[in-house]
Amino acid sequence: MLLRIENLEVKYGNVQVLHKLNLNVAQGEIVTILGANGAGKSTTLMSVSGLVKPSGGGIYLEDKALHKLEAHDIVKLGLAQVPEGRRVFGTLSVQENLHLGAFTATDQARIRKNMEWVYEMFPILHQRRGQLAGTLSGGEQQMLAIGRGLMANPKILLLDEPSLGLAPILVKSIFATIREINKSGVTIVLVEQNARLALKLADRGYVLELGKIVLEDTAKALLVNPEVQNAYLGGA
Ligand code: ATP
To answer: The ABC transporter domain covers which part of the protein (predicted)?
Structure first.
């Protein structure tokens, strides 16, 4: 397994929000985490990327104990997170935002190559490379947020709600690009409100309820699971 989360426990103050959570991601997979608002999906991703410190359990990337490391060292090991809400630096250009994503790299040739790769994935970002990120559309900002994550040249990319607030046509295009990114060798962990889309894209999925994994299966099986259909797919 590339990523292993073992008996993860997280508390905010004295409120426990994750309870003995176990989740595995194999090299090359797309794994999705489904769950209602407040189930603990973002907390799970933030624990992996080091932004939230667990109170118990362990998180391992190729047997390196991430829960003992700081967020910037976790990025260096090859794990990047694209946070919810397309946080880009609005007063910097597209190109400058991408450069910031490469903060772990010192090799200029490598940075250039990554940037070419990002522009290939998102041609619109190339067209708008000189534009201030704050003036991009919502969809373009989401692409930039993903592109910035890719600049760290990750083995594994964590995506938190990439479709949030986007028009359906843009959602389709973002999801198609996520598939492309995965095909190029990047393992993906996807948190997504749009459960149907997420399950169509993913290999496997986990269902999180009140901080506990209640179900895990292949994405195909989850799509036809009556409980999942009732709770997350509008009963269809
Ligand atoms: P959503 O789909 O709404 O983003 P989520 O499944 O990602 O939800 P989390 O954001 O992980 O859920 O939140 C899990 C629980 O922890 C919620 O009850 C939330 O209110 C609480 N929580 C999250 N962040 C904090 C914080 N910084 N301090 C206190 N409680 C928090």
So the answer is: 3-235
Identify the helix (H) or strand (E) that includes residue 145. Answer: helix 138-150
Interface confidence (ipTM) of the complex:
0.94
The first and second tokens of residue 183, run together, are 């095909």
Decide: 94 in ligand 1 pocket, CB within 6 A: no
Q: What is the pTM of this model?
A: 0.93
Cα(38) to centroid(ligand 1), Å: 5
Domain 30-41+70-205: which CATH class?
Answer: alpha beta
pLDDT digits 0-9 by tens, 19-53: 999 999 999 999 999 999 999 999 999 999 999 99
- Measured CA to CA, the distance from residue 144 to residue 139 in angstroms comes to 9
Given the structure tokens 């919502």, which residue do they identify? 138
Structure tokens at 231: 């709770």
Q: Whose CA is nearest to atom 17 of ligand 1?
A: 38
